[in-house]
Amino acid sequence: MTTVQLRRYQVEPGRMADFLAWFPALRPVREQYGFRLLFAYADEAADTFTWAVEHDGDEAEFRAVEATYTASPERAQVFETFPACISSMELGFVRDVLAG
Questions:
Q1: Which has the closest alpha carbon to 19: 81, 94, 97, 88?
Q2: Using CA atoms, how far apart are residues 91 and 86, in angstroms rounded to an integer?
Q3: How far apart are CA 93 and CA 87, in angstroms?
Q4: What is the pLDDT of residues 28-84, one digit of tens each?
Q5: Which CATH architecture does the domain made up of 2-94 adopt?
Q6: pTM of the predicted structure, to 2 decimals
Q7: Torsion of CA 20, 67, 81, 9, to 10 degrees
Q8: pLDDT at position 99
Q9: Which end of the chain, C or N, has fewer beta carbons within 10 A?
Q10: 33 Cβ contact partners less than 8 Å away, ≥ 6 residues apart
């Protein structure tokens, strides 16, 4: 079983390039904690960034590993250069309704 979290960010107008330059640094840290990045899409016309990350296990296990990841020194180091350009975000757990 895997759990997928869909993340959608509203990026401040004119700041998408800053965010996109920073975002790749996050991937290896997420992967270090067992997360897999499924996709990442930027809608520059609407200033939105949507991505999905999965982890083995159920939602409770995802949340537990995410709490460890969030408190990690590796994540803190990546966020030292975060451009602080997200004005809002929507997070939710999703399932593939087309999968058999």
A1: 81
A2: 13
A3: 21
A4: 999 999 999 999 999 999 999 999 999 999 999 999 999 999 999 999 999 999 999
A5: 2-Layer Sandwich (3.30)
A6: 0.92
A7: 30
A8: 84
A9: C
A10: 65, 68, 69, 72
